[in-house]
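Let's sit down with a protein and look at its sequence and fold side by side. Please make up or recall a protein chain and show it to me in full. Label the sequence line and the structure token line clearly, so we can match residues to local backbone shapes. Go ahead whenever you are ready, and we will take it from there.
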Amino acid sequence: MNGLSISELCGLFCCPPCPSRIAAKLAFLPPEPTYSLLPDLESTSPVTSNLGASGLRSRLAGGAGGAAGVAGVAGGGVAGVAGVAGVAGVAGGGGFGDRSGEGRWKLHLSERAEFQYSQRELDGTEVFLTHSSRGNRVGCMYIRCAPSARYTVLFSHGNAVDLGQMSSFYIGLGTRINCNIFSYDYSGYGVSTGKPSEKNLYADIDAAWHALRSRYGISPENIILYGQSIGTVPTVDLASRYECAAVVLHSPLTSGMRVAFPDTKKTYCFDAFPNIEKVSKISSPVLIIHGTEDEVIDFSHGLALFERCPKAVEPLWVEGAGHNDIELYSQYLERLRRFISQEVAAQ
């Protein structure tokens, strides 16, 4: 199950490891980076060198960090994207955590990013690095999809993708729901340094939240937290601690143990990703989206979170949808638009 041997499964109960070990086994599968950061030669701020993803990790964190293991919570990819590589303009220095003095950066997308838009859309994309409280550099991306938009979506993406692969989806999503999109890569993903872990997930989204607020001056009442698959873990954690405009949980999980062992009814002290214990603390409106035929995170997880969440609005159960294709159903955008333009805006 999910790449774990019988002895490892037994060991979870006989000699339970720390949550980070469970998380690494069940959740993290960083892809080969599909983008790199290049110095903006038109900037007056100094940049030390040309660094790709591996170079950034080596120079900034003393080595690359990828997590071994299998993708038990592997979803969150974007379907149907095709196109060409490109380079985007980059935001300047300053803001929370931007203490490096390394100047401005440009985004270079490899062909594996499968970017489907033109240079014009890339020109509306900014990338920069910030610091997490655990000492990792966190790659961030801000896309001005709708310059006059009231809301900015802080998007925590799914597993096995990075910002390069998600960039086309972000542009399309933001344009269609009339929101700007801010996203980041988890430690060990893309150009972010360190290794993927549960604790790093929480530190990464904290760094992204503070960077979005201080760098762009966006207040909490104008931020919508959006988590997809494994991205619901940092999203729920942050939303349980900070009030925001709204929360979207897309194909969420209740906890790591409940994914690995569907009959689990109790949250053990060594369980990873305990969304089920945190979702009741969210004070913002919550929209839960789940496919009824999800083959990675069973539909029952979405139902359980909906029942536990006091601020949940009418959910979207997509009949026949799996883990990675909900975006292809028309009701997905329809429900998001209605949630943002009516239910959130009416607060």
Notes: Residues 45-51, 57-87, 89-102 have pLDDT under 50 and may be disordered. The radius of gyration is 19 Å.
